[in-house]
Amino acid sequence: MAQATRTKDLEEIRRDPLIKKSLNFVSLYQYDHRHSQQVSRLAVNLFDELHNLHNLSVRKRMLIEAGALLHDIGWKLGKKFHHKSSLELIMQDHTLPISDRQRVIIGLIARYHRKSLPKKSHKYFSTLAPYTQKIVCKLASFVRLADGLDYAHKSKVKEIRCNILPNLVIMQVKGSGFTREDKEKAEKKTDLFQKTYRRRVKIIWTALSTKPSKENLLRRDII
Questions:
Q1: In a domain, 200, yes or no
Q2: What phi, psi does 201 have (nearest 5°)?
Q3: What's 140-189 look like in SS3?
Q4: Is residue 94 within 8 Å of 77, Cβ to Cβ?
Q5: How far is CA 20 from each of CA 17, 65, 97, 118, rounded to the nearest angstrom?
Q6: CB environment 187-212: b (16+ within 10 A), e (fewer)
Q7: How much is the average pLDDT of 31-46?
């Protein structure tokens, strides 16, 4: 019954006006639509895989999806401080069908995808209750890591599988064409996740199997 309810909730979220509006919002501001969708997909992947760790309701999935889609809209105002610009653009917009509290959460998810980790002195974050600040940290950590996993903006990661241990989370990242820089950036952007969940992160980079070449097939036949 619980699984059936969760599936029904996910179907409703996919049809949610906020997600549709966020996609429209991105088309107006986003310089790289493909990247925003990849980061959103990976962040949601992490949210689903780590449900037993974050224990947030499935409705929070909508907030992380929106925050991820909108995380880079600040590029319209320039690269420098674009994470802060994304926050301000979200806060200034009143077309998104959300409450004021949800707007702050989504804006902060976008803001913390890079640079500084959340601080109690930060604008908007300081206005939230401790419980809501924790929600922001949990969700933003997924978007921050997802952004690192697509640092090259080439959608190399296809899937993430996670194993939750007492002091460690093992993430098997599946894809192809990973570079050293991709790996370094992703490892670096686990910082908020590790601080929030108090667990180390180990990323296992797994290349997806490719169709065997004719040469390899011939070699196999000879062996």
A1: no
A2: -120, 130
A3: HHHHHHHHHHCCCCCCCEEEEEEEECCCEEEEEEEECCCCHHHHHHHHHC
A4: no
A5: 5, 11, 10, 28
A6: eebbebbeebbebebebeeeeeeeee
A7: 89
Does 204 fall in a domain? no
Domain count, the chain: 1
Whether 22 is covered by a domain: the verdict is: yes
Report the share of the chain in percent with pLDDT over 70. 79
How many residues appear in the chain? 223
The edge-to-edge listing of strands for the beta sheet with 157-164 is 157-164, 168-175, 200-207
Identify the pLDDT of residue 81. Answer: 78
Under 8 Å between Cβ of 104 and 122: no
> Which structure tokens are listed for 99?
């409450």
Residue 20's domain is classified under what CATH number?
A: 1.10.3210.10
Indicate whether this model's pTM tops 0.90: no
Q: What integer is the mean pLDDT of 100-115? A: 93
